[in-house]
Specification:
Largest sheet: 7 strands, mixed
Shape: globular
Strand content: over 45%
Order of helices and strands: EEEEEEEEEEE
Distance between the termini: 40 Å
Radius of gyration: 13 Å
Helix content: under 10%
Length: 114
């Protein structure tokens, strides 16, 4: 069974930075795309960005140039570096491993104050 554990959320002022981490158990991490989503209460979960097993990244337009996704296959971890944060980035952030039956992290709250 694959488990994803996220960390790094918190409260930050607009313009600040946070770094989220997603640590995976199991061996499928290195062969799977890792996706970051976010969700505001009462709204649908939104795609933030993804990174393939070989390191190719894609981002939603609203975070391009501010967010960076990385991964370390040897450690089965991924990071979401978020810079120049805005109040509209406030959400619960989830990592999702697109492999096997698909696996979600528990989510971590990011709150950006204006």
């Amino acid at each position: 069974q694959v488990q994803l554990v996220e960390s790094g959320g918190g409260l930050v002022q607009a313009g600040g930075s946070l770094r989220l981490s997603c640590a995976a158990s199991g061996s499928i991490f290195r062969d799977s795309t890792l996706v970051w989503y976010r969700q505001v209460f009462g709204k649908q979960r939104e795609f933030v960005g993804s990174i393939t097993k070989s390191g190719d990244t894609h981002y939603t337009d609203s975070v391009k140039g501010r967010f960076t996704i990385s991964r370390d296959n040897a450690k089965s971890t991924s990071a979401l570096q978020m810079n120049d944060l805005k109040p509209e980035d406030t959400a619960v952030y989830y990592c999702y491993l697109r492999g096997g039956s698909g696996y979600w992290g528990q989510g971590t709250q990011v709150t950006v104050s204006s």
